[in-house]
Prior knowledge:
This protein is mainly alpha-helical. Helix 6 (184-196) crosses helix 10 and helix 8 crosses helix 9. The protein starts with a strand and ends with a helix. A three-stranded parallel β-sheet has the order 1-2-5, with helices on one face. It has a two-stranded antiparallel sheet with strand order 3-4. The protein has two domains: 5-93, Rossmann fold (3-Layer(aba) Sandwich); 104-303, Dehydroquinate synthase-like - alpha domain (Dehydroquinate synthase-like, alpha domain). A hairpin with a 2-residue loop joins strand 3 (61-70) and strand 4. It is built from twelve helices and five strands.
Amino acid sequence: DSYDRVIAVGGGAIMDLCKLLGCKRPDTVHNLYFKRFPVIHEKDVIAIPTTCGTGSECTNISVAIVKDEKDGVLTGGETKLGLVSDDIIPNKVCLIPDLLRTLPYKPFACSAIDALVHATESFLSPHRKTITSELFSEKAMDMILKGFKLIDEKGPDARFDYMLEFVTASFYAGIAFLKAGCGPVHGMSFPLGGTYHVPHGESNYMLFGAIMDYYDEKNPTGEIMKFKELVAKILGCKVEDAIPEMNALLQRILPLRPLRDCGFTEADFKAFPQSVEANQQRLMTNAYYPFDLESEEAIYRKCY
């Protein structure tokens, strides 16, 4: 307790840890995440991200892998949970693009795709979307997809001339989902990251394309039409081809791993949706089109 402030330099996990260190110390972190201990801001936090994905430097969420429980009883497993409180928003943010220059290509690509997911889910948010979140999510999607087009045309090293745009877009996407929230891509990826320790950006990426296809199939004329029009304009394709073209571009930026490659089992097809329904309702209620256990299982099977 002797420190006066916290300076967070790193990726999303570091940001989320340092947000906790800015709070009054709980009896246990487990109780903090299961809302049995109050979140009280005590120390200033200065956030300096070294990735371009989480947006955690400006959000009110701290995510951690914690021991899972059901009806107050530990299950023996683990899950990812998000602690949400405006008291953990960092006090100051400093964006330094040069800190991303030594980030290896795969973590860079995963984090940038994560930022794209943040912007997309915020843009499609049915309940919490605001004029502010829409402006920031649109700008973030535009910057990220243009950066991916540049890498697709010129190769991975092209990112070094675009680092300011990538780190800024990640920050914009963070502002967007601070306002509008994330959704089922994050909700369904949390058990995957918690169980098999798949990096957050990659676990989101594993589910992103299938969930976007699900949305487009279930309600193609709602807000997703505006999303497709925006993507089509950036990628230079027909509106009806926007989601397949975006998924194909992401595949060229980073080949998509199937769930089976990270250890996913037959039992997980039932267990993961149950975990999602029990623990991730703050995210699942933000779905562009509703999910249930059957549709969640279908998504996991499609990505398997």
